[in-house]
Amino acid sequence: MKAVVVENLKYRYPSTERLALSGVSFEVEQGEFIGIIGKNLAGKSTLCEALVGLVPHFYKGAYGGRVVVDDVEVLSSSVSELARHIGIVFQNPFTQITAAKLTVYEEVAFGLENLGFQREEMVKRIDYVLKLLGLYAYKDRNPFELSGGQMQRLAIASIIAMKPSIIVLDEPTSQLDPLGSEEVFKAVQSLSKEGITIIMVEQKMEKIAQYADKIILMHEGHLVDFGTPEEVFSRPDLESYGVEPPVFTSIAKKLGIKDNNTGLYPVTLEQMRRLMIGEPHRS
Amino acid sequence: MARALSLYVEADTFVQKLDPMVKLLYILVAILIPFVILPFRWVGAAFIVLSCLALLYARVFARVVPLLGFSFLILISIVIIQGLFMPGNKTPAINILGLTFYKEGLLYALTLCIRVLDVLLAFALLVLTTRPSDLIQSLVKRGLSPRFGYVLSSALQVIPQMMSQVGSIMDAQRSRGLETEGNLWTRLKAFLPLIGPVVMSSLLETRERAMALEVRGFSASGKKTFLYERESSTLDRVLQWTLIVVLILSIAARFVLV
Amino acid sequence: MNKKSMWSFSFSTPVLVLIPVAVGINYVGKLFAQLLKLPLWLDSIGTVIASMLSGPIVGAISGAINNIIYGLTMDPISFVYALTSVAIGLTVGIMAYRGRISNLWRAVVVGLVVALVAAVVSTPLNVIFWGGQTGNVWGDALYAYLIAHGVPVWLSSFLDELVVDLPDKVATVIIAFLIFVSLPKRLVQMYEGEEALEKLD
């Protein structure tokens, strides 16, 4: 079973004229790490919202095509039902705190209480995710007292406590300082190691190149490319889509360092180093 | 960070541990009987004494004083105004500074004071000895929509959050040249540029929070569960039935007397 | 586009998140009024904005919860005056929902009606608890003067309350109106209610 299947997805927000998404199609296998890149208003956030059902159920508007997540069709389901299969973390750590709970521990329980889990199961899951995200020491703190990075990790913990097999992250580090960003990337990496399918919108290309198995390039509502980081970042027309490749790729492009078998440029420091030494390209 | 709204005082007495619904029932009884069923001054006074005893036992009596503070000044002005001016004042009672206070007015003021204190102390008992989250959870378990339980719970933190922005907004606007002192018109004009940003940013955040709630299963159908449950104790049941019996007896007494 | 009846009882998640914020706006308004030493309460601006955004029921609930929270955390007598807050929410909702307040003058009219309604609802409460007084110095001075001159208690109390409410509620509705018209359209739509989902080919 594929984790995500998107077929010819089209969407227009209410009271707007242009399509936010025009005929997007792709598939994601379980356990994959997918990065989504593109300039502002390319449709990246809309695509994330469409995977979890906020598009169309929260916004209404005009919807066409099909999205199937974990074998559940988004259009005929609901955001709450989909929450058992797919979770999402947004940019702003502050507004993801429910404000209804006084401790980190209870905050994580919020989603589990809504979905009707039994107490013993709740405790197991909360303990597990808090330890996984390094928040167990803060379990009795008020969520609003945490730092930005900690709050974002709390958001992630609250989502994965509901045990979705897929998690979407829409620029989760854009409002964090470098330390907080690093905490979040490490957390996402450990989730990926657990086998959770990751779909992440990111502006930090070096990070995406490092972690992603595949990259989706969005532009004005269209899916322009869907391939490995090497394939996507090696595109000569990348800049016309408002995207800069990772710094190593830019350098490699200027110096003409590429893998002669595939014709692709390196996307990480490690790859570039190997190419310069003369080792064969390894993904 | 701004503290969540709560007057709860922690102490290891049975009052704190009591089911919040029993305390709510007490408030209902403390209002119905002295106000409606047996409207005599001594009945109200009896409830006042009862509430005070409970507050003392629960070790929260000291915190009652600030709660009373709001009403205290009004009560004094009531004593003065009713004592001097109540229509129907006939019998002079005391003379202070050349002003005559009348018995009818003073007795009426006493009735009002007893009523206010009765209500205040009964509520104080609930509010000082109950965690807001426990009270809300009690209500949800007995049928309040969990979505409304959320509204109440989140209000207790959202409100102090918004209030804590007030200081920095005033500083920021002042540094941009906003005049906040001077004549009435100047100060009135300053109101909108001060409250505007707070309202705007808070409302914009509500969209994000609403989406975050949705993806946490907020609108899920089916029964919600609770991380922390409390069991009903024998004392809860005993007190609950005692209050109900008292209420019934007072209604019976009313029919006997009238 | 389907328009919900103003009396519908379905509460979408954005509306539920709005209510605590409306109460917060009430609190913040009151605080700014105190800091600026204004002779007005300005403690219902949030309730009025909620009514303008989501109709009379949501406005009434915002008002009720405002008093419940205030009663639970500051002054228990507030609980009883929830009736007044509910009345304000209902009034504004009925008169103002969905942009029926089109200009400033209409806002003034709504403010006057709200002041009247608030005074009418508060007066019986004031008489029962405070013998007719309101706790406002000027209003109570007027009250004392009136009953000393033989004016019936109910009327004196009503005038006491009205003198306090007229400037306050008119100012409140005007301020709420000015804020409301500067809100981005997408935000207002979020609270408006059910749109139908359209199909795209």
How many β-strands of chain A, per DSSP?
10
Shape of chain A from CA axes?
globular
Helices and strands of chain B, in order, run as HHHHEEHHHHH
Radius of gyration of chain A: 19 Å
- What is the makeup of the main sheet of chain B? 2 strands, antiparallel
The stretches of 5 or more residues of chain B where confidence is low (pLDDT under 50) are none
Strand order of the largest sheet of chain B: 1-2
Distance between the termini of chain B: 57 Å
> What is the overall shape of chain B?
flat
Helix content of chain B: over 70%
Rg result of chain B: 24 Å
Number of helices of chain A: 11
**Per DSSP, what share of the residues of chain A sits in E-state strands of 2 or more residues?**
15-25%
Query: Reading side by side through the largest sheet of chain A, how are the strands ordered?
Result: 6-7-8-3-9-10
Question: What's the average pLDDT of chain A?
Answer: 92
Termini distance of chain A?
Answer: 25 Å
Number of domains of chain B: 2
Structure description:
The complex is a heterotrimer of chains A (283), B (258) and C (201). The two termini of chain A are 25 Å apart. Chain A has helices spanning 44-52, 54-57, 79-82, 104-114, 119-132, 148-160, 178-193, 205-211, 229-233, 247-255, 269-277; strands spanning 4-12, 21-28, 33-37, 61-69, 72-73, 86-89, 166-170, 197-201, 214-219, 222-227. In chain A, strand 7, helix 7 and strand 8 form a beta-alpha-beta unit. In chain A, the strands form 2 sheets. In chain A, strands 6-7-8-3-9-10 form a 6-stranded mixed β-sheet, sandwiched between helices. A 4-stranded antiparallel β-sheet of chain A has the order 2-1-4-5, with helices on one face. Chain A is of the alpha/beta class and 283 residues long. Chain B folds into 2 domains: 1-143 and 230-258, no CATH class; 145-218, no CATH class. Chain B is 71% helix and 3% strand. Chain B has a two-stranded antiparallel sheet. The longest helix of chain B has 31 residues, at 184-214. The termini of chain B are far apart. The A-B interface holds A 52, 54, 58, 78-81, 83-84, 87-88, 90, 92, 94-96, 98-102, 106, 109-119, 122-123, 142, 144-145, 155, 158-159, 162 and B 1-2, 4, 133, 146, 150, 153-154, 157-158, 161, 205, 208-229. Strand 4 of chain A pairs parallel with strand 1 (197-199) of chain C.
